[in-house]
Specification:
The chain is built from ten helices and 19 strands. The chain is α+β, with helices and mostly antiparallel strands. Bound molecules: ligand LM6UYM6L.
């Protein structure tokens, strides 16, 4: 079943006659149009239309099988209005701005607008073979770039130099960075989102490199923490604890497992090493058209692993004023277990 067919089933279950899709990743998922932020999709039970403007006439025709209406707002919503009279139309409450909602209300007075959350996203958590291949290719590229750049992580280099090298190599390969590159050395390692700064890497630093490629719209995500010279004994201990938690959580990945239980497993190991408080975020997340998408590997999540999900396993320990460690793999949930997509070597400290 295509994602569009799945969406129509989901719309029926939610009592919706139509769905106005504005979230860029959802626009891309439903239409194939890659400039999702400048597109909208209207799906009813018997039609689906892509709306974008004249800057994208050629691109939309090349990328999307959907009939396309080229116009700028408000002509787009005016075009849709007659067909929506008397219908219950869902909109994406976690994306549409208040102003855009007001606009829909003004132009579709005969429709009942229904706030919907996560409906299209839920159809994206299990990946098709084509999607898995796209993420696989993105990760393979990231692994290659990491191997090229790892030797440059030495005392005297700036975090920004490392990030620039990674970015340049991704660009040359026709991809781009999946997010603002995290290169956090020494005490900056205590920042889970420590994007590369002009700090000069010092001997004995641990350096956390969190990187991903975005290729054909799909993302990868991987973290390695590396040592420059001989690290402090306490940080080496923290590294081994995080590695133990990461590897144990990866090994536990299989269909039917609750993601909250995976988070608990990693957290308990870190707690056993006195690092429970230092693990300041969830164990991971799904990866696909967005770098952060479902399922959530949060302690409070009700998500359950299914074959075809692609997730990160990324425990960390962050010690303010001292430093930090994070180790992250990108993992495909298979029919009987898991496959680790990220192949870059991890250091033994
Ligand atoms: C801004 S994208 C960050 C990618 C990274 N791998 C990641 O997902 N995380 C780093 C810290 C925890 C986790 C997150 O929840 O952001």
């Amino acid at each position: 079943m295509t994602q569009l067919q799945q969406l129509r089933h989901a719309m029926r279950r939610a009592g919706l006659d139509a769905m106005w899709i504005s979230d860029p990743a959802n626009v891309r998922a439903m239409s194939g149009f890659s400039s999702g932020k400048d597109g909208k999709v209207l799906v009813t039970h018997d039609a689906a239309t892509l709306y974008t403007d004249a800057r994208y006439t050629v691109q939309a025709a090349e990328e999307s099988p959907l009939p396309t209406f080229i116009a700028r707002p408000p002509a787009t919503v005016e075009h849709a209005a007659p067909g929506l009279s008397g219908l219950r139309v869902g909109f994406e409450a976690d994306h549409l701005t208040v102003a855009a909602l007001e606009d829909l209300r003004d132009h579709w007075p005969q429709a009942t607008l229904v706030a919907v959350q996560g409906l299209v996203q839920s159809l994206r958590v299990v990946k098709s073979e084509v999607e898995v291949q796209a993420v696989r290719d993105a990760q393979a590229l990231a692994d290659r770039v990491y191997a090229e750049v790892r030797p440059l992580i030495v005392a005297g280099a700036r975090e920004l130099d490392i990030a620039t090298e990674i970015e340049l190599r991704l660009r040359r390969a026709g991809a781009q960075s999946a997010f603002d590159l995290i290169v956090a050395s020494g005490p900056r390692g205590a920042m889970p989102h420590g994007v590369a700064s002009d700090r000069v890497i010092q001997d004995r630093d641990l350096v956390t490199v969190d990187m991903g490629a975005q290729l054909r719209g799909y993302h990868s995500d991987m973290t390695r923490t590396v040592a420059v010279g001989t690290p402090d004994a306490e940080m080496a201990r923290v590294y081994r604890a995080v590695l133990e938690a990461e590897e144990a959580a990866v090994r536990a990945v299989k269909p039917g497992v609750r993601t909250a239980d995976l988070d608990r497993l990693a957290r308990d190991i870190l707690t056993g090493h006195g690092l429970g408080e230092a693990f300041a975020h969830s164990l991971g997340h799904g990866v696909g058209l967005e770098v952060h998408e479902g399922p959530s590997l949060r302690g409070t999540s009700d998500d359950v692993l299914q074959p075809g999900m692609i997730i990160t396993i990324e425990p960390g320990a962050y010690l303010p004023g001292v430093g930090g460690v994070r180790i992250e793999d990108l993992v495909l949930v298979t029919e009987d277990g898991f496959e680790v997509l990220s192949q870059s070597p991890k250091e033994t400290l």
